[in-house]
Write a structure and sequence with these properties.
heterotrimer; A alpha/beta (about 250); B alpha/beta (about 210); C alpha/beta (about 475); A: about 250 residues; alpha/beta; Rossmann fold; 2 domains; four-stranded parallel beta sheet; 13 helices; globular; B: about 210 residues; six-stranded parallel beta sheet; four-stranded mixed beta sheet; metal ion binding (chain C); 4Fe4S_Fe_S_CS (chain C); metal-binding (chain C); iron-sulfur (chain C); 4 iron, 4 sulfur cluster binding (chain C)
Chain lengths: ~250, ~210, ~475
Amino acid sequence: MPSSGRPDTVYYFGTCLVDLFYPEAGLAGMELLKRAGIRVVFPADQSCCGQPARNSGYFDEARAVALRQIKAFPQPWPIVVPSGSCAGMMKTHYPDLFEGRPEHEEAKAFASRVFELTDFLVNVVNIRLTDKGQPLTVTWHGSCHSMREMGVVDQPKALLRQLANVTLVENGREKECCGFGGTFAVRQPEISAAMVADKVTALEDTKAARVISGDCGCLMNITGAMGKKGSPMGGQHIAQFLLERVDG
Amino acid sequence: MSETARANILARLRAAPRQMVPDRPDWTPPTYGEGRLARFRAMLEAVHGEIHEVTTEDWAERISVLLADRGATRVMVPPGMTLPDGLVAVPYDQPVEELKAVLVQGVEAGITWAKAAIADTGTLVLWPDADEPRLLSLLPPIHVVLLRLGSLVDNLAQVMAEQTWAAGMPTNALLISGPSKTADIEQTLAYGVHGPKELIVLVLTDA
Amino acid sequence: MGDFTSRAPAALNDPTLRANFRRAMDGLMSKRAAQFADKDAWESLRAQGAAAKARVVARLPELLEQLEANLTQNGIVVHWAETTAQANAIVLDILQKAGAKTVIKGKSMVSEEMELNHHLEAHGIRAVESDLGEYIIQLAGEAPSHIVMPCIHKNKAEIASLFEKNIAGLGYTEDVDALTAAARAALRGQFASADAGISGVNFAVAETGTLVLVENEGNGRLSTTLPPLHIAVMGIEKLAEKLDDLPALLSLLPRSATGQAITTYVNMISRPRQPGEKDGPKAVHVVLLDSGRSRVYADAQLQDTLRCIRCGACMNHCPVYSRVGGHTYKFVYPGPIGKILTPQLEGLDCAGDQPHASTLCNACVEVCPVKIPIADILVRLRAESVNSTGSGAVKGAGSMRKRLESLVWKGWAAMYGVPMLYRLGSWGLTRLGNWLPDSLPMLKRWTSVRTRPRFAAKTLHELARDKGYDHE
């Protein structure tokens, strides 16, 4: 039964990183929405939010790609994004990017429809999860942009706490950047390496089996560093983890 | 040189695009009601200040005891202030140029009045003047402050408004919250780095 | 020397330095957090502080004239300097006319910007730093590594050795009280004999012509009270419109900087010594320094940079600063505020690498007490550094543009901006991407500490269609 204010149909913006590297995570988010009784539309013309170009200072290129996304989501449905970072780009920076241009109003209207996935599941869908998995201890990594641009701090933890057999342990440096930063990781490789090394240590200190996150950029960085050092810990996108738990 | 610089700088600033002047949003600084003195005490003690409740009758005797405990006898005071036997009152009655040696090395404590105090931050307000010069609260290793309870207010905004500071500022106005301190070495607090090592506040509860 | 990126490894590979910064930054972050535990109170106080400084930026030329008029009326002599060279010349001239040979200094980042001590020493005037942290780095012959705590990069043992070498009669001790007492004793005589005091300014109140200085040690009060001459140097942006703005600003500054409710001293100076007064300098001068600030002011977005009250909270919370320390930045202002201020003051052609030394994590934005949009300005400066016109609001605009890089971004925009090309490209990457050679420079840097990411067998586009999702 859809609760009041819950839409019948949503758009899903998969993000380029999920599209190319973590499609299962993207699909899991869609599946969670579908099981909640929501029709999920995945526009074929979507690609990337444009953040890499914007953050590198290539505004014209960012605008070209951003405009293509705006055009690909014409209906007034919410746009759900399985990434706080890409959602933050679309919600907070699309309006800035088109400031003083003919597309400004369109960009603002688009931005107002953007939701981060876990925020949407908690605050709009009011989802209820039944855990069928084995006991497991996990820790949470919130991405900087999900926390500071999208205000996503407690929503994913609320979802994890719904899982009866999952123990969520906090890690010591939860609010500190993992060092990914898009092109930062390859532009400032030594600093990024130091940051991710500290992040992995803080996560390992929790003794959790897995780190769960809502952003695949951070996950690629963190699990990549864990893999390289032979850490026993793994990482997973929250959508995929939740689906795995409810499926048992 | 300075005239040309002035003209050039102001011309560049005037040529720039100007933002709207934002309003000051509403903001109510904290108030403490009956808990004012308790707040003042807690905040002052938290920054290593010492506070005693005294009266207009006994403050001089109390100073005498407090300073005797610390082995301090030579005390610089505003001209005209007398101290009980056992303390040597050295009046700050000449320009600093004449008194420098005494101020820097020759006294163990200095006594001033406070113009007001602020409960919010445990702060003393001093307006140094001809009788209570600026260095009286700075050079002696112990600073003793006399504070009338009636002049304790909640916050800085209140003291500025009630005393109409904007109508005329003194040569020097001071907010003092605790003794001199530093944390420059490994964030470890050390007191008395350049100013007083101890700050003793006597609150005259009947004034 | 090189650029920021090439300077970083030396700091990253120095375990003592890393530990010193980590310990210090962790402590400062937790102290600040304790001060602002009440989120509503923080937001409302911060709105007040941001508005106060935004008002200064919006009315800067008028307020500077008002400040000048009121200072002058109060008997304080006002000087204007377009460059640090002019400012140095002004200070030297004042000192020489007064016959000053020794100067005692309070902490001032503007004087660091001017490299004032070197200039004075070259003209036979000895300047002694009196803030304990500044005194320590002056002994060590170093520059500050933090704008509030200049010797934060040094630990007790390093300071103990430095003092043992430089202070006669003091053996090696790591006792902080003993080290502090030794500095006090060494500097007392300097205060008493100095011919002039030089300080910075935290807020100059236009309404009343008042210089507001905050400090904990008392050295600032000594420098501005004991010598017969006081010279204050300040940037043209360090104003407050009214005394009424001070309660919020004086609450935000120390709480953001060091997690203190208030500093030990707030020193408000409105006049030189008046007839009948027994101490205080007989002459007070203020030097208003531009040095690039009016150029920052020329751009409607970038001028928000000038709100800064120099609390240092941005660097305390910066994951990059806390790992490389202040000296890696090479310029006077390190950390996030330095990354936006330095390229604007010095030009993108010599500091254009700095805006790129950030993950845009927004930790600085979250704690800035005057709401400077640091991350947006970082991105704007990146855009200026690669803009194709080669001219723009910032000196050195376009100086970092590389033909290959801009072509790559053009190609990127084509692939991601044309659905047909994206379908083709993403299909190709998922089928062939894992055969890209490990020797590609980007992959090499990535895999230096991480495993190589693997392209999926099929894109989400394909999986969504396979699963029967509406794929319009």
